[in-house]
Amino acid sequence: MRTLLTLQSQLCPDLLSIMHKRYTVLRRIYYLQPVGRRSLTSSLQMTERILRSEVDFLREQGLVNIAQAGMTLTEQGLEVLQKLQPFIEEYLGYSQLSGELKERLNIQEVWIVPGDSEHDEWAKKELARAGAQLIKSWVREDQVVAVAGGSTMQAVAESMSPTPTFKRTTFVPARGGVGDAVEHEANYIASRMAKNSGGRYRMLHVPDQISEEAYQLLTQETQISDVLHMIQEASVLVYSIGDAKTMAGRRKYGREFMQLLEEKQAVGESFGYYFDRNGTIVHRTKTAGLRLRDLPKVGRKIAVAGGASKAEAIAAICSVFPQDTLVTDEAAARKILSQNHPL
Amino acid sequence: MRTLLTLQSQLCPDLLSIMHKRYTVLRRIYYLQPVGRRSLTSSLQMTERILRSEVDFLREQGLVNIAQAGMTLTEQGLEVLQKLQPFIEEYLGYSQLSGELKERLNIQEVWIVPGDSEHDEWAKKELARAGAQLIKSWVREDQVVAVAGGSTMQAVAESMSPTPTFKRTTFVPARGGVGDAVEHEANYIASRMAKNSGGRYRMLHVPDQISEEAYQLLTQETQISDVLHMIQEASVLVYSIGDAKTMAGRRKYGREFMQLLEEKQAVGESFGYYFDRNGTIVHRTKTAGLRLRDLPKVGRKIAVAGGASKAEAIAAICSVFPQDTLVTDEAAARKILSQNHPL
DNA sequence: CTCCAAGGGACTTATTATGTCCCTGTAATA
DNA sequence: TATTACAGGGACATAATAAGTCCCTTGGAG
């Protein structure tokens, strides 16, 4: 069932919303029957004419009975209402979830995809697809998109598809940094995004651990300083949120670093910044790129992260960074909401 | 899954047809890729503009890739195509079936509902609902609808819902006849239809087994002859098809009659006429009402019958009576098509 | 070099959806 | 009994969208 809904949401999303609208009307009639058109209108916050069209349709389908005393459900209407309920809840549950999340995390928009991207490959693809679609809908011509690294971002990159607008879009890595697994590196991901979307990209090859002098020299190189400027003036920032525990599990970081993370109770990481559950920055990767103080200048910020284990990290970062949009999955959403309110 | 599709077919039937249309486009692109708009247009028998709108939408959704060489499916597009296939087949299987049935039975229109109405209550309701909807769509004001008897017709009657048009519709029994179970009698069904749809009705109380003199006298009564005239000038005839074996199972008919049916190899019955597998009338109930020679005068003829056991009877009657529309179920449809071609 | 088929733009027309207003009937109530 | 509030339905102008039609540029194959 979920499959069909998911497929339909891709192939005919607006029609699902129509289904939902009609379901809502049916449901309201059921609760208020017998009810007149005007009452329904105000109750459903629709204009009278639209409500009327819907009701006419429902009558045509034999789902509502329309008499002088008002409208009532037919037996069939009731049957449809009851049988459709679980599907609608599934379809709409995410809207509810996202509404609650918006409030809880104080962000403008939340997209939720079904499942758990941590354990379900399809869910991860869904997550990535949603992220990619969001980018597509927000990017205008001649804009710069800064992208961070991580496996989720990689999935997003692979989900991008070409659009004329992207031809004049430049993808830049949010931060430099060499040494991570190449396919999770921001540089690589920026290039993949550009390739899959038909856009351009710039690289930022700044090693992680270099001396201050070397760093200063590097940042004065035109190639590098150009990219740095582009990053700071990016119109869209797309990043993911890493889980501190997963980070700690990776071998190449020294024990010392791991201890530091644990000591400071880091729960997550985003484009080089490590933070604890309160959103306090506890560590910063030493490399060039987008700095925290540049964030407010970024036009749109899109966080893409899913999986129950990242719930804490997502909640933490959203409560501190000014967020525009969070793309997450059902598992993370429910986990976040089940945690105690931070206030 | 079937549930969702069924519900959607009631709540938003156009949703499904649009989904199907887009699926078809996806599928065709997949087969012909890379393909141009003009080739697709002719291949899909769509106008160019419509095809273009669909393709634009699919591109927007990231399902097709659109380049100078032509259109291709994206990875997502392929995924949707594959996952959607079983659903579409289920949804569309019936269209295919109905197409084949039209040809086989040489009738204008065939409606097929899912399942087996003989064993599945929901399927029987679906069948009845389809029949009722069909009546609704065909009846105009001040027309007469002649209805036959039987349990299927009863279900149709119960599925009728009121419409303004029906206020000026008169339902009459296709044939008289008293003695059958009252709830399966044409008289009763005509009255139920009228009641459920908000229309008027007339009764035809002519006993089955009476002497010729009594019959002649009765038919000269104004009340009865009036109704008889209405029947003969009915604009719509709705009837079902009974299975001879089931008929034979009913006790109240004499052994003699049963033997007759078996002797003449009767397979089915409709509004009082019994016929064999070739459609030859082998017996006629002795009562007043619609006669065979009046059939061509009837504007529209709707046969509603389902269940595998009625397949033979359906095929037989359709091959002889000039049919307009058959409403049947999947079980009967498949059974009919699996039988050898009568020619 | 030419030609064909590709996508895309632009414009008109047809169709549908929507907003708005008013009418009539009915049932409860003063 | 008169009144009032609320029921559905009709009518119509207008906004929005879909669809039909024609033409343009471009890139690759012959």
UniProtKB/TrEMBL annotation, chains A, B:
Q: Which keywords describe this protein according to UniProt?
A: DNA-binding, Transcription, Transcription regulation
Protein biosynthesis found in the keyword field? no
Annotated ranges, domain Sugar-binding: 91-338
Q: Where does the source fall among the domains of life?
A: Bacteria
Is Disulfide bond among the key words of this record?
no
Query: What SUPFAM superfamilies is this protein classified in?
Result: NagB/RpiA/CoA transferase-like, Winged helix' DNA-binding domain
Q: Where are the transmembrane segments?
A: none
Q: Where does the CggR N-terminal DNA binding domain start and stop, copy by copy?
A: 18-88
Q: Which organism is it from?
A: Baia soyae
| Protein name in UniProt | Central glycolytic genes regulator
Species lineage: Bacteria, Bacillati, Bacillota, Bacilli, Bacillales
Protein family according to the UniProt entry? Belongs to the SorC transcriptional regulatory family.
- Name any one GO molecular function: carbohydrate binding
Q: Name one Pfam family in it.
A: CggR_N
